[in-house]
Design a protein that fits this description.
This protein is an alpha+beta fold.
Length: 435
């Protein structure tokens, strides 16, 4: 049996999720919807909504900003953008994949179009889609060139949708083929800190809907999409699928996903979590600090080591540790509202931001987010060092109840007053039951 067929069989198989996996899936769904509701009310999403509203006249599916309805593909697009645009969506760290973002946006729109769905079937589809999206990242043997959350995300989402829509297992190969045919998203958007990043997530969610709809209409797709001469392995990135399939169905990857405590690039969270702890432990204030140096693997340097600039966009700011670190020391929180204010050019942030440095630690693992080491030099000459073996919010370093509540409350404050309260009070009911 080919590695591709193993994945297709797993996607179509009848699963009974273990109780702990159900708990994790529902918890992560709630986190994703809460962050998405906050993102849906952001200035960036406000620019997007008029455009997607003009893409059709049907009202099949809800948006996370309120109960305003859009055509199913458009709702998936908008909600996918909203989930990722604040950089607050959960990540499978070993895979380097925002594994719930595309899958959740696509499933939510499809469930709405169906008039709702069975809660157990929805959670199972979510867990399967997240597993496959994460699995493609686990299978990667080198650094990202394409934006893996979108390229892996569309494949996980499309196969999850095939389950929820009740497609025949024989059709899953065509769904996979069309999803691969639509896959796209480049890391150039990350290099330039472009708003194209969440747009790539959005496009993947919409395209997953299209792939399933076209297969239902009788269209087919290529089948040898992972290992063929022009397949994922040849064009997207080098993969060894056996790194994923050897444990397929034995380990549910959704239970390995990390929640992001801060609305910033995940690669910043090791340092930010350590700084929050040090700030509280030492009563440290911004003016106490002379310089900060983070010794980290190449992925950290690549993703958030960009220099401080006196004028930066919100998208750049969320991915700039030299801004985020002094912000954490000053405020004790990373608040998305701040990214849209003139405070980004604050002289007090700039004074330290220009002395925050990310230094390569000699690691050769191009996908590693840990370990890291933080070195803080104080103006009085003292030094504070902190070893970071796991990022806050990961299974190895879970958030406290208070930290989880702080994120929940901040998301609620940022969300529209018109959003459905079930997003925060009963997310599974929101996802599966229409009012």
């Amino acid at each position: 049996m080919t590695e591709t067929q193993k994945i297709l069989d797993f996607a179509a198989k009848e699963h009974e999720l273990p109780a702990n996996v159900c708990v994790d899936a529902e918890r992560l769904l709630g986190d994703t919807l809460a962050g998405g509701a906050a993102g849906a009310n952001s200035p960036e999403a406000g620019l997007l909504l008029p455009a997607v509203t003009g893409w059709g006249t049907s009202n099949d599916a809800r948006t996370l900003i309120d109960n305003h309805r859009l055509p199913t593909p458009s709702a998936a697009f908008f909600n996918g953008f909203a989930i990722h645009c604040l950089e607050w969506d959960a990540v499978h760290e070993p895979a380097v994949v925002h594994a719930l973002s595309v899958v959740t946006a696509a499933l939510l729109a499809a469930s709405d179009r169906r008039g709702g769905s069975d809660a157990s079937e929805f959670l199972t589809a979510l867990a399967v889609g997240v597993d496959i999206a994460s699995g493609l990242g686990i299978a990667a043997t080198g650094p990202m060139a394409f934006f893996r959350p979108a390229t892996a995300g569309i494949i996980g989402a499309a196969l999850a949708l095939a389950r929820l829509e009740g497609l025949d297992p024989d059709q899953y190969g065509d769904v996979l083929g069309l999803a691969y045919s639509y896959a796209g998203g480049t890391m150039q958007a990350h290099v330039e800190a472009s708003i194209a990043l969440p747009l790539q997530i959005a496009n993947a969610a919409r395209s997953a809907i299209s792939a399933v709809d076209l297969v239902k209409a009788g269209m087919n797709g290529p089948h040898d999409v992972f290992e063929g001469p022009f397949g994922y392995d040849k064009l997207m990135e080098d993969i060894d699928l056996s790194n994923y399939t050897r444990d397929l169905g034995k380990i549910w990857r959704i239970s390995e996903v990390s929640i992001k405590p801060f609305p910033s690039g995940r690669a910043s969270h090791g340092a930010l979590g350590a700084l929050a702890s040090i700030r509280e432990q030492h009563n440290l204030i911004l003016d106490d600090v002379q310089s900060i140096e983070l010794f980290a693997p190449p992925l950290i340097h690549r993703l958030v080591g960009r220099p401080f600039k006196t004028a930066m966009t919100p998208a750049y700011a969320r991915l700039c540790l030299p801004l985020l670190a002094p912000m954490m020391l000053r405020d004790g929180v990373i608040d998305p509202d701040f990214f849209c204010s003139e405070g980004l050019s604050s002289p007090e942030l700039a004074a330290l931001g220009e002395k925050v440095k990310v230094t390569l630690d000699g690691s050769v693992d191009t996908n590693a987010l840990a370990p890291q080491r933080l070195d803080i030099i104080l103006k009085n000459g003292d030094r504070i060092e902190r070893q970071i073996d796991a990022n806050l919010g990961s299974p190895e370093a879970p958030m406290t109840t208070a930290q989880s509540q702080q994120k929940h409350d901040l998301c609620r404050r940022l969300a529209s007053d018109e959003c459905d309260p079930r997003i925060f009070e009963n997310p599974l009911a929101y996802a599966t039951e229409l009012q």
